[in-house]
From TrEMBL, chain A:
Organism of origin: Cohnella pontilimi
Composition-biased stretches (Polar residues): 172-186
Top-level lineage group: Bacteria
Family, similarity comment: Belongs to the zinc-associated anti-sigma factor (ZAS) superfamily. Anti-sigma-W factor family.
Pfam families per the UniProt record, alphabetical: zf-HC2 (PF13490)
Region ranges (Disordered): 133-266
Domain called Putative zinc-finger: residue spans: 3-37
Coiled coil stretches, renumbered: none
Positions with biased composition (Basic and acidic residues): 134-149
Protein name per its UniProtKB record: Anti-sigma-W factor RsiW
Keywords (A to Z) from UniProt: Membrane, Transmembrane, Transmembrane helix
InterPro entries: Anti_sigma_zinc_sf (IPR041916), Znf_put (IPR027383)
From TrEMBL, chain B:
Domain RNA polymerase sigma factor 70 region 4 type as annotated: residue spans: 116-168
Similarity remark: Belongs to the sigma-70 factor family. ECF subfamily.
Annotated protein name in UniProt: Sigma-70 family RNA polymerase sigma factor
Gene Ontology BP annotations: DNA-templated transcription initiation
Start and end residues of each RNA polymerase sigma-70 region domain: 23-87
Length: 341, 182
């Protein structure tokens, strides 16, 4: 088994995709190949680092932010999907507004309050929409609490925070190791909760601006300066979040696996992207990125992508396992491959 | 995990169910957008756009697909579209995350790469590689779930993921060798 094959095994190993036999084959090789052992260590470290990336949360509730828009949608959404574009753009005057307050009224809880708070925060009191007085009344004393929270968030310099309710003590890991933008509270999504009274209990010190960042980002030549901030940056990365799925592997060191670069050629009209990746020819639609066509994986080598000027077809060179060279032709209207005419 | 009953109710036109459902997926949608776009404001915009699209398209969701892969398909499409349009200006430095320092010496030994280095490196990957990595690690998707989300063949998903990890590993290794970490 050569190192390249082992690379694939190591990659799959990291995803927990190997059976016992494959694992022992991999470990056999790694045991006597220092390069692969090093690579395995690096991939394992990388994978662990990826698993520990902070589970960022938005600085305010996105659903609350779009609720008013969703209200506008309501009248249309039930009916034709075709009306979609219209709805996005056109704020429907009274009819929609009335409907909206009806159903927001039904929600009655956090959502409505948060919507009001959001509007207050963004636009100030003058921005209150029609009917919001009623909603405020409904909201009752909760609103006062929310106001307090809002103010706190505002004072900490996070302009867009809506902070609907600020209940912080929930399941999210981000509570332990808050990764927030600025100091806003980040309400977890709690769909059915109707009242949230424990306000203003943001436990983590609202994180200060980024003193460490600056130092780390501009490492100066003088040793002391860089070492300190780096070290603390290292400490910062440790989220408590360690997803469980992937097994962890030991041994260490280095090997460079440089793969040949992909070919990637856009069609002249920009609608297609032809790619050669690891021996396969692939054709993607650029508008939605979907794979429209992929060559059969029958070995051999592919290269030399060339588009027809009118973007109707693409050709490339295929050399099969026996070294026979041919030109292949893919018509984008058929998405089939054939020998070049 | 979103309850199937909630999805059904939302599809049947129960607006409260639909809003509840959106609240349940809000964070996962944002997380993907954040790591794909590497830019807070763009991620907020994209995530909201995705939620609105989910709101309007909920009727077209079919049970044969997993709900969360359907959701991720929507948000990744929006993000890919966004970063194609404004790639050159995508910045990771404008809105830095603030990381809470943690005294965890053991963790420091265990994890060789800093989150921010990784995030920057992810930003350098080609879009499909980046998407596959984000779904794998920020959504904990399996190969199959990634394939379903992106409409890619399984083998392509694997080769993107493997290649992405190799590229990341080279980028991060170079970074370390560059002496930045002392």
């Amino acid at each position: 088994m050569n190192c390249e094959e082992v690379m694939e095994l190591m990659q799959r190993h990291i995803d927990g995709d190997l059976n016992a036999e494959e694992t022992s084959r991999m470990l056999d090789h790694v045991g006597h190949c220092p390069d692969c052992a090093a690579m395995l260590q690096r991939l394992t470290n990388l994978s662990r680092g990826l698993e520990q990336l902070p589970r960022v949360v938005p600085p305010y509730s996105l659903v609350d932010a779009i609720l008013p828009q969703l209200g506008d949608w309501e009248t249309e959404a039930a009916g034709a999907e075709a009306a979609e574009e219209q709805v996005v753009t056109a704020p429907r005057a009274r009819r929609a507004a009335r409907k909206r307050s009806e159903w927001i009224g039904r929600l009655a809880g956090v959502g409505a309050i948060a919507a009001v708070v959001l509007l207050l925060l963004i636009g100030g009191p003058n921005f209150l929409p029609m009917g919001s007085a009623d909603r405020s009344k409904e909201a009752g004393s909760d609103l006062n609490n929310d106001r307090i929270t809002t103010k706190m968030a505002g004072d900490n310099g996070s302009p867009a925070a809506s902070s609907s309710g600020a209940n912080m003590g929930d399941r999210s890991v981000t509570t332990d190791s808050p990764v927030t933008f600025g100091a806003s509270t980040s309400p977890e999504d709690e769909p059915s909760a109707s009242t949230k009274k424990d306000v203003g209990t943001n436990p983590g010190d609202p994180t200060s601006p980024h003193p460490d960042r600056n130092a780390a980002a501009s490492p100066s030549a003088s040793g002391d300066q860089t070492v300190e901030p780096r070290a603390s940056a290292d400490a910062q990365e440790k989220g408590p979040h360690v997803p469980s799925t992937n097994p962890v592997t030991p041994p260490p060191t280095a090997m460079i696996m440089q793969q040949p670069p992909d070919e990637e050629v856009l069609s002249p009209d920009g609608q297609w992207r032809a790619v050669i990746l690891e021996g396969l020819f692939q054709l993607f639609r650029t508008d939605d990125g979907t794979l429209a066509y992929e060559s059969p994986s029958n070995g051999g080598k592919r290269s030399g992508i060339v588009w027809k000027e009118d973007s109707s077809a693409v050709t490339y060179t295929y050399v099969d396992a026996d070294g026979n060279k041919s030109f292949r032709y893919v018509d984008v209207s058929e998405l089939k491959e054939k020998p070049a005419p | 995990m979103v309850e199937p009953a909630l999805i059904k109710a939302a599809q049947a036109g129960d607006r409260e169910a639909l809003v509840s459902l959106l609240r349940e997926i809000e964070h996962q949608v944002y997380r993907t957008a954040y790591y794909l776009l590497n830019h807070e404001q763009d991620a907020l915009d994209a995530a909201q756009e995705a939620l609105i699209r989910i709101y309007t398209k909920i009727g077209s969701y079919e049970e044969k697909a997993q709900f969360r892969t359907w959701v991720q398909r929507i948000v990744t499409n929006i993000c890919i579209d966004k970063f194609r349009r404004k790639r050159p200006s995508v910045s990771i430095d404008e809105h830095e995350l603030v990381f809470q320092a943690r005294d965890n010496v053991e963790g420091e030994v265990l994890s060789a790469y800093a989150a921010e280095e990784i995030r920057e490196a992810i930003g350098k990957l080609p879009e499909h590689h980046r998407t596959v990595v984000v779904l794998r690690y920020l959504q904990d998707f399996s190969y199959n779930e990634i394939a379903d989300s992106l409409g890619l063949p399984l083998n392509t998903v694997k080769s993107y993921l493997f290649r992405a990890r190799q590229q990341l590993q080279v980028l991060l290794h170079d970074y370390q060798k560059g002496g930045v970490r002392g």
